[in-house]
Specification:
Layout: H1 2-13, E1 17-25, E2 30-32, H2 38-41, E3 46-50, E4 61-65, E5 72-73, E6 78-79, E7 91-93, E8 102-108, E9 117-126, E10 130-135, E11 138-143, H3 149-190, H4 203-210
Parallel strand pairs: 1-9
Antiparallel strand pairs: 2-7, 3-4, 3-8, 4-5, 6-7, 8-9, 10-11
Length: about 210
């Protein structure tokens, strides 16, 4: 019976818990999402910690808030940029470094037994990738953390310009062929036709025809 109770409690502790992975780039800001609905219980206490969430509170707490005017934050690189009044307690790490990689836990303390909203996030830090596009013999270098749409648009515009040039040349050739055909038709229809020339016959041939 005791074992069943422990198993039941273990299941309850996993309620409203999730795990996700986030990729960050060295030297850039990275945000670990954590949100809850404030329409039922209002603004609630929450905390962020390094490592997997324990049964209660957070392990190695780095950000916490409990009915105070401002949250307690252990480092100026940790920011809460969302609207906490609307339930957005996402953690933003400024100028993320290799040492920031690892598991983070967000806990929102919802009233009741084992009702806490928990989010475990594994932050993976990577070196930014620089992608080079070659368009019209010109290199466009794009930072992987930037929007690739601008570089793609540049390549598409260059390709469209070449396409317009090809279409213009093809149109010129087509019009030239049409004009040539019209000239030939005009000459055949409207220019006066030459009278047929009868071949001249010699007197000897005429005598032969009379005989």
């Amino acid at each position: 019976m005791r074992g069943f109770c422990y198993f039941y409690l273990l299941i309850l502790t996993q309620v409203s818990s999730s795990t996700r992975s986030v990729i960050g780039f060295f030297g850039h800001n990275v945000t670990l999402a954590c949100r809850y609905d404030t329409s039922h219980h209002g603004v609630l206490s929450f905390c962020w910690g390094r490592g997997e969430l324990p049964t209660f509170k957070c392990s190695d707490t780095i950000v916490s808030w409990e009915d105070g005017p401002v949250p307690s934050i252990t480092s100026p690189r940790y920011r809460l940029l969302g609207s906490t009044a609307d339930g957005d307690v996402s953690l933003t790490i400024l100028d993320a470094q290799r040492s920031d990689a690892g598991l983070y836990g967000c806990r929102v303390e919802i009233p009741g037994w084992f009702n806490d909203h928990k989010v475990n996030t594994r932050l993976v830090m990577e070196q930014e990738i620089v992608t080079t596009f070659v368009t019209n013999n010109e290199e466009v270098v794009v930072d992987s953390t930037l929007d690739l749409f601008e570089a793609t648009s540049t390549a598409v515009k260059s390709k469209d310009a070449h396409g317009v040039g090809n279409i213009g040349r093809a149109t010129a050739v087509f019009l030239s062929a049409i004009i040539l055909i019209l000239v030939l038709v005009f000459r055949r229809r409207f220019l006066p036709k030459r009278p047929l020339e009868h071949p001249q016959t010699s007197p000897a041939e005429n005598v032969y025809e009379v005989l």
